[in-house]
Structures are given as structure tokens and as C-alpha cells.
Design a protein that fits this description.
CATH superfamily of the largest domain: Phosphoribosyl-AMP cyclohydrolase
CATH topology of the largest domain: Ubiquitin-like (UB roll)
Number of helices: 6
Strand content: 15-25%
Structural class: alpha+beta
CATH architecture of the largest domain: Roll
Shape: elongated
Radius of gyration: 21 Å
CATH class of the largest domain: Alpha Beta
Order of helices and strands: EEHEEEEHHHHH
Strand order of the largest sheet: 2-1-6-5
Number of domains: 2
Mean pLDDT: 88
């Protein structure tokens, strides 16, 4: 979608268009907002998300105050041409509460949920936790486990067992997330690299 003139849009009675904001890489729905014609024009022009605030009755540039802008990568109308899918590269949390998505309550998806549990273990170090054991023994132990689990993934793949491969891959991902926490590397940095490679 490059020019409004080329598209027939079915605006609602308030001359607004519902916009579903989705993380382009993960597919996670981040928020739902509304655009009027000017907001959509600015979104197309700047390649950043603009909306119409129904409560304040004014144009709203997402992230103008917080810095959490949303770089727009793709715009798609649904089959009825009355709802817009906005696929973005988020530069921070989408929700005003500081969470990645406005739909986070009780619905965290992997790997976010696991990452948060590992971060909690890192901070609290509860006794009897295997994750605590890894953090307490240090980087070399964690690296050794990552290497071992990577080798086990290869063996499982050679054995042609889907169940074994899934299990060993889960172990590898877990230990990688432990490594990222130990090195204080945000998992979203990895996602950013994937976004860049995707172009």
C-alpha cells in the first residue's frame, strides 16, 4: 500500500479504520487502534505508525513521547476492506503499561514467558532450582551445557526421531536463554538481527 488514491477503503461511520498492529517477525498482535485518513497518509509517508485518538480527538504519533515508535513494514487491508493489518518493527513496548503487547495479561507466548522465568531465577536464586545452579556455577558451565545440548540436537536429528529432536531442541533453547541472561543480552537483540536479515 503506497497511495490512498489507488485503494478503496470502507471507513466506519466515524470515518475511522480499525488497525491491528502486529510484530512483523513474531506475528504477535501488539495493539489495536484507529486511523483516520490523515493518520493513514502520515503512516504511509513516514513509514511510522500514526493513529487517531478517539478519547483526545487528535492525531497521535505512536512513540512520540515514549520513544517506542513502530516502524511500519507492511500495510494490508482485510477482504472486506474495513480493517487494516499494520505489520511493524517495534522499537519498544507497544502498551502504555510498559509491556510488549496490550494483550499480555495471562497470554505470554514462548519464548517470552520462559525468558521471564529465567530472569526471575537469575535475580532471586531460589534453592533447588537447576537454573540457579547454572547461574551460580558461572559462564563456563553454561557454555559447556550449550555445547552439549547442540551436539545432542545433531544426534537426535541423525536418529530421525521427531520426539527426540523436539526434546533436545527445547533443551538447547532453554540453555541459550540462560546464556543470554548470564551475558545480559536481551533476546530481542537476536530478533532484531533476524528482522534486519529479513530485510
Amino acid at each position: 500500500m503506497d497511495r490512498l488514491e489507488d485503494i478503496e477503503i470502507k471507513w466506519n461511520q466515524e470515518k475511522l479504520l480499525p488497525a491491528v498492529i502486529q510484530d512483523y517477525l513474531t506475528g504477535k498482535v501488539l495493539m489495536v487502534a484507529y486511523m483516520n485518513r490523515e493518520a493513514l497518509e502520515k503512516t504511509i509517508e513516514t513509514k511510522e505508525a500514526w493513529f487517531w485518538s478517539r478519547s483526545r480527538q487528535e492525531l497521535w504519533h505512536k512513540g512520540a513521547t515514549s520513544g517506542n515508535i513502530q516502524k511500519v513494514l507492511k500495510l494490508s487491508l482485510d477482504c472486506d476492506q474495513d480493517t487494516l493489518l499494520v505489520q511493524v518493527d517495534p522499537q519498544g513496548p507497544a502498551c502504555h503499561l510498559g509491556t510488549e503487547s496490550c494483550f499480555n495479561q495471562g497470554s505470554d507466548i514462548f519464548p517470552d514467558h520462559l525468558r521471564k522465568v529465567i530472569e526471575q531465577r537469575y535475580q532471586e536464586r531460589p534453592e533447588g532450582s537447576y537454573t540457579t545452579y547454572l547461574f551460580n556455577t558461572g559462564l563456563d558451565k553454561i557454555l559447556k551445557k550449550v555445547g552439549e545440548e547442540a551436539a545432542e540436537v545433531i544426534i537426535a536429528a541423525k536418529n530421525s526421531s521427531d520426539q527426540e529432536l523436539a526434546s533436545e531442541t527445547a533443551d538447547l533453547i532453554y540453555h541459550l536463554l540462560v546464556l543470554f541472561q548470564e551475558r545480559q543480552l536481551d533476546f530481542h537483540e537476536v530478533l532484531n538481527v533476524l528482522r534486519e536479515r529479513r530485510g
